[in-house]
Design a protein that fits this description.
- By secondary structure, this protein is α+β, with helices and mostly antiparallel strands.
- It has 2 domains: 57 residues, no CATH class; 155 residues, Phosphoenolpyruvate Carboxykinase, domain 3, CATH 3.90.228.
- Helices cover 30% and strands 35% of the residues.
- It is built from 6 helices and 14 strands.
- Strands 6, 7, 8, 9, 10, 11, 12, 13 and 14 form a 9-stranded mixed beta sheet that branches. A 5-stranded mixed beta sheet has the order 1-5-4-3-2, covered by helices on one side.
- The relative contact order is 0.15.
Length: 243
């Protein structure tokens, strides 16, 4: 028997002139908490999320794959937080010895560079832009590759792995791993969380999921040079975390 999809998304396209939608804008969400309805309006599309029926009805302003990609990201962000199942993170990711490693950081900090260098040393490149981290009670946190276009490369087919460690990256003249205080680990994780809806209904569970994640998975600061040799420092740190 075929199981129903977790979330059904219906998409229509209205071909409006470019000048009508090209200016970027964001309208704050309209949320009907009692009925579980979320109304989002962006420059590229509008959508109504029915959280109880697990149904999304969207209208794209142009038949552009990038618009659909943005919509899909928003669907993932909304329902994973609503379900308290995990977080969509702006991060690059690699897999080594069947365990995943995430690289977090501000824009241009070196997330994609770190993942590419790690891949050059034999790691499997999972993502260089966005990935989902499953955070559930009684289950080890796992990363799941998403069917979302990455910046450069990244695995788009279904794949998951246990999350071994996370690193907040910055490019430097040395390769070094440093410990972080608990509040800084939480801050770095929240900064990486992809959720554009600024509302307590979503901010609170995001914070709780991030707090649980950093309690279960080590997060270090990683300073690295733009050479594959940095992976030796990371590999040594990962070895120290092995049971």
């Amino acid at each position: 028997m075929q199981r129903p999809a977790d979330v059904t998304v219906e998409v229509a396209v209205r071909a409006r002139p470019r000048e009508e939608w090209a200016e970027p804008w964001w309208s704050g969400p309209r949320i009907d908490v009692q009925n579980g309805v979320l109304d989002l309006r962006r420059a590229e599309w509008t959508a109504v999320f029915d959280l109880k029926r697990r149904h999304v009805e969207a209208v794209l302003d142009w038949a552009a794959p990038s618009f659909f990609d943005l919509l899909l990201r928003q669907v993932l962000e909304v329902f994973t937080v609503h379900d308290r199942s995990g977080l969509v993170l702006h991060a690059s990711a690699v897999e080594t010895e069947e365990r995943a490693v995430l690289f977090l950081g501000r824009s241009e900090a070196g997330k994609s560079t770190a993942a590419a260098l790690a891949a050059s040393r034999g790691s499997l490149l999972l993502a260089d832009d966005v990935i989902f981290v499953e955070v559930r009670e009684g289950v080890e946190p796992r990363v799941h590759c998403l069917p979302i276009v990455q910046k450069n490369e990244g695995m788009l087919r279904p794949h998951s792995a246990t999350l071994a460690a996370m690193y907040s990256v910055s490019q430097s003249t040395v390769d070094a791993v440093d410990r972080l205080e608990s509040h800084e680990r939480l801050r770095q994780t929240m900064k990486a969380t992809a959720l554009f809806i600024r509302h307590p209904l979503y901010a609170r569970p995001c914070f709780q999921l991030a707090e649980k994640l950093v309690c279960e998975v080590p997060l270090r600061a990683l300073r690295f040079r733009d050479t594959p040799a940095f992976w030796d420092v990371v590999h040594e740190d990962l070895s120290s975390l092995s049971p």
